[in-house]
Amino acid sequence: MPSMQTTICICFWTPPKLRVGSGAKAAATAEPEVTALLQLTAWGTLAIMPVTGDTFPTHMICILIGNLGASVTEVVSDAVVTEFSRTQRTGVLQSYAFIGLAAGALLGNLSGGYVLLRTQEPKIMFTAFSVLLGLQLALSIGTKETLPSSHGSSRSLLVKSSLSANLRKQFSNLMTAVREERIFYPLAWIMTSFAVVPVLSGTMFCFQTQHLKLDSSIIGLSKVMGQVMVVSLTVLYNRHLKRIPLRRLVGGVQIMYAFAVLSELILVKQVNLMLGIPNEVYVLCFSALAEAIAQFKVLPFSILLSSLCPPGCEGSLFAFFTSGLVFSAILSGVFGVGLSALIGLSSGGYSSLPLGILLQSLAALLPLAWLSFVPENWTADGKIVKQR
């Protein structure tokens, strides 16, 4: 998925204080400085801790805490964007947020890779990341949060209730929203479209580094190119593609994804060398294409769910959405491991890798069979401003 980053997602986020009827405001009162502090603590510890076998469990705990903080931040930002988008044209804010995330990933990959290549010392990169998180923490403390639902409505009154009561309320709101067919079926399609495709990215990485002897920096730069593709696709979507009915758009993107997966055969069969394209150039330009398309595919569904989300359920619904996508990615990875074992792929032999890529590409076409789950005529080219 959306390059699916390895994150720890929570099914819903509820702080001790809630604003009645406003899921985004509830998420916003979760004190973003707490999530920044979690990440700062995790990455700061990694920056000063020696790398030995004895510290491995501590490293894993730090990564878990850092990912937890990042996940909560992502859920809160999705909820806030959703609430603000109700006063804007459909999809505009989501597109800008998507571009911002991709641009941030692009800058992070470039700067992190540059530091790592120049210094060969991961701790310097961890230290730089900790400094950035410290700046984020300072900005979070000094920023006053204001949402549309916090003005002119009795729902903006703060109420205090127990954590268990808040959890029950948010879970009830979430279940009510998910049971709606117009929300349930698109959610089911996007999650299953990732889950049914076995991922062979680990096998391809080993093939590129062990068999083709490619430098890992080339593969890292291919991820940068992937983020450039995501930014380009998002801009294209915001200007032109959002006028296309969702079912037709998603079907076309899924077919493109299947062909992008199949294009890995060119590298495996070394057809690129016959065409005069070096392996390094091909990997740099095309290796991350399928991942970029998969990441972009999430954007139309984010906009759809934002337009359909009931008021007061923004944070819970998008936490559930993100969790479902990550769970789908886990299933996809499990199926990838099973497929590798089934066809006899191993680090010592890649003769059956073309068959694995072919089966992966065919699996990417399977979600077209239940494409009717996606709304047929809905488009993100909304002209009406929705007031709260």
From TrEMBL:
<comment type="similarity">
    <text>Belongs to the major facilitator superfamily. Folate-biopterin transporter (TC 2.A.71) family.</text>
</comment>
<dbReference type="InterPro" id="IPR039309">
    <property type="entry name" value="BT1"/>
</dbReference>
<feature type="transmembrane region" description="Helical">
    <location>
        <begin position="355"/>
        <end position="374"/>
    </location>
</feature>
<dbReference type="GO" id="GO:0008517">
    <property type="term" value="F:folic acid transmembrane transporter activity"/>
</dbReference>
<dbReference type="InterPro" id="IPR036259">
    <property type="entry name" value="MFS_trans_sf"/>
</dbReference>
<keyword id="KW-0813">Transport</keyword>
<dbReference type="GO" id="GO:0016020">
    <property type="term" value="C:membrane"/>
</dbReference>
<keyword id="KW-0472">Membrane</keyword>
<keyword id="KW-1133">Transmembrane helix</keyword>
<feature type="transmembrane region" description="Helical">
    <location>
        <begin position="281"/>
        <end position="305"/>
    </location>
</feature>
<keyword id="KW-0812">Transmembrane</keyword>
<protein>
    <recommendedName>
        <fullName>Major facilitator superfamily (MFS) profile domain-containing protein</fullName>
    </recommendedName>
</protein>
<feature type="transmembrane region" description="Helical">
    <location>
        <begin position="317"/>
        <end position="343"/>
    </location>
</feature>
<feature type="transmembrane region" description="Helical">
    <location>
        <begin position="96"/>
        <end position="117"/>
    </location>
</feature>
<feature type="transmembrane region" description="Helical">
    <location>
        <begin position="183"/>
        <end position="205"/>
    </location>
</feature>
<dbReference type="GO" id="GO:0098838">
    <property type="term" value="P:folate transmembrane transport"/>
</dbReference>
<feature type="transmembrane region" description="Helical">
    <location>
        <begin position="249"/>
        <end position="269"/>
    </location>
</feature>
<dbReference type="InterPro" id="IPR004324">
    <property type="entry name" value="FBT"/>
</dbReference>
<feature type="transmembrane region" description="Helical">
    <location>
        <begin position="217"/>
        <end position="237"/>
    </location>
</feature>
<dbReference type="Pfam" id="PF03092">
    <property type="entry name" value="BT1"/>
</dbReference>
